[in-house]
């Protein structure tokens, strides 16, 4: 394979991790990123592109002789950027618009799961003119009940209602206050599943599948999984809640049937398929699908694999993938998000960040919401950094991650102190 020029779309921690992994490939020519962040400046050339302007992206791809575009976030995928790039003759790692509806519409994903016989929560979906009917339906279910915005809501469009008052409150917010905006023009009401969450990531060319080790994310802002959902406050791998045998079951009973059902609808899914799972007493059930790498899961997945990530993405994009497990380290990895005060609500930007360079070889720092101002590193988003520790045990990986967190300082820095705790408890009770 000749050296490839690569453009990464996105500017968060996921894209920094992808850029870091791709930059290590011996097959890399030039690496570009749009827009990137302060952390990617050392490994990729930032391009000033409006990624919602697809023709502008296509023109830039031609100008820089880009061979492969890796699309990180869900919004440009759901908007069809991959379709337009492929039509212009560029290889793309990421699903087309039709396939991205697995994340772009929870009702669509549920319909695919039903047709494919995939285990998931009981559910009904309702249009914007049926929201009062949806409220009534939710109140008739056994509590708690889950209310989901059908569309994209940056990982924050899911509410667990544990009382009738909470059901009324969320529907009042949707109907009267425009909660979740257009994402809630349709809602899904589903049963609450008891169990432990895990995520499985499959790289696919539509036919063949390669799996990463299972990961566990931490969605809520508060300790012990309390408070509102965020984009993710930390992750670790491998997640012991998913055994090797269960991972095989997930591939055969969930991932492959979904890809086959999509193909039967004339949709070939290319890229990475993120399967969010609840491990219940009855086995794994699907919570959601995403059409891209998770953030912060990507930040622990990338350093965990021995694969040439550029080659992996290019093989998936060009239909040249082979079935099998990805070659990954036997080490454990834990990533802790450092966020701005106030996140996931309003927060201030421009806080000076120090200490990111003072790390040993077993600690990595991926940037999310950062920028450079007058030579100083400053905050520029809600989730600012992801500090990843690696070690021979989960406990050692967690210790190293928090050691890195303690070295970093910015005004109002917030992080959860319990990332990976469920994994430790499961190991102790094994």
Write the layout of secondary structure elements.
Layout lengths: L3 E7 L2 H11 L4 E8 L9 E2 L7 H10 L4 E4 L2 H5 L2 H7 L3 E3 L7 H4 L1 H11 L6 E5 L3 H10 L4 E5 L8 E4 L2 H14 L8 E6 L4 E9 L4 E3 L4 E2 L2 E3 L3 E4 L4 E4 L6 H21 L6 E10 L2 E8 L6 H8 L4 H9 L6 E2 L6 E8 L23 E5 L2 E4 L2 E4 L3 E9 L2 H14 L13 H9 L1
Parallel strand pairs: 1-2, 1-4, 2-3, 4-5, 11-18
Antiparallel strand pairs: 6-9, 7-8, 7-9, 10-11, 10-16, 12-15, 13-14, 15-19, 16-17, 19-23, 20-23, 21-22
What does this structure look like?
This protein folds into three domains: 93 residues, Rossmann fold (3-Layer(aba) Sandwich); 69 residues, ATP-grasp fold, A domain (Dna Ligase, domain 1, 2-Layer Sandwich); 234 residues, ATP-grasp fold, B domain (D-amino Acid Aminotransferase, Chain A, domain 1, 2-Layer Sandwich). It is α+β, with helices and mostly antiparallel strands. Strand 21 and strand 22 form a beta hairpin. The model has no long low-confidence stretch (mean pLDDT 95). Helix 6 crosses helix 9 and helix 7 packs antiparallel against helix 8. The termini are far apart. 31% of the residues lie in helices and 28% in strands. The chain is globular, with a radius of gyration of 21 Å. The strands form six sheets. Strands 3-2-1-4-5 form a five-stranded parallel sheet, with helices on both faces. A five-stranded mixed sheet has the order 17-16-10-11-18. Strands 12-15-19-23-20 form a five-stranded antiparallel sheet.
């Amino acid at each position: 394979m000749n050296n490839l020029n690569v453009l990464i779309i996105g500017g968060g921690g996921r894209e920094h991790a992808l850029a870091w992994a791709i930059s290590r490939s011996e097959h890399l020519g030039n690496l570009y990123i749009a827009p990137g962040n302060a952390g990617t400046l050392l490994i990729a050339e930032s391009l000033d592109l409006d990624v919602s302007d697809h023709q502008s992206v296509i023109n830039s791809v031609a100008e820089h002789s880009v061979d492969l575009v890796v699309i990180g976030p869900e919004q440009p995928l759901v908007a069809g950027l991959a379709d337009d790039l492929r039509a212009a003759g560029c290889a793309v790692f990421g699903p087309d618009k039709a396939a991205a509806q697995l994340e772009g519409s929870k009702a669509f994903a549920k319909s695919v799961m039903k047709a494919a016989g995939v285990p998931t929560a009981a559910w009904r979906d309702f249009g914007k003119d049926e929201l009062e009917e949806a409220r009534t339906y939710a109140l008739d279910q056994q509590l708690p009940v889950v209310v989901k915005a059908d569309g994209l809501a940056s990982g924050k469009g899911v509410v667990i209602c544990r009382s009738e008052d909470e059901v009324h409150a969320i529907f009042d917010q949707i109907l009267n206050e425009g909660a979740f905006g257009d994402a809630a023009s349709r809602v899904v009401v589903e049963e609450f599943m008891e169990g432990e969450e895990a995520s499985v990531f499959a790289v696919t060319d539509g036919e063949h599948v390669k799996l990463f080790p299972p990961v566990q994310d931490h969605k809520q802002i508060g300790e012990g999984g309390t408070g509102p959902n965020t984009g993710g406050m930390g992750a670790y791998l491998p997640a012991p809640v998913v055994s090797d045998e269960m991972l095989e079951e997930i591939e055969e009973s969930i991932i492959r049937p979904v890809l086959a059902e999509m193909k039967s609808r004339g949709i070939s899914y290319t890229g990475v398929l993120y399967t969010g799972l609840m491990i219940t007493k009855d086995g794994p059930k699907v919570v959601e699908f995403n059409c891209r790498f998770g953030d912060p899961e990507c930040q622990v997945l990338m350093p965990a694999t021995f694969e040439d990530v550029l080659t992996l993405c290019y093989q998936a994009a060009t239909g040249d993938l082979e079935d099998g497990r990805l070659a990954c380290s036997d080490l454990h990895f834990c990533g802790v998000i450092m966020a701005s005060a106030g996140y996931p609500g309003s927060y201030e930007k421009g806080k000076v960040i120090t200490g990111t360079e003072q790390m040993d070889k077993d600690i990595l720092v991926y940037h999310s919401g950062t920028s450079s101002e007058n030579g100083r590193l400053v905050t520029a988003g809600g989730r600012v950094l992801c500090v990843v520790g690696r070690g021979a045990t989960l406990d050692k990986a967690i210790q190293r991650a928090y050691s890195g967190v303690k070295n970093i300082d910015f005004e109002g820095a917030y992080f959860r102190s319990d990332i990976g705790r469920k994994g430790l408890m499961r190991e102790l009770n094994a």
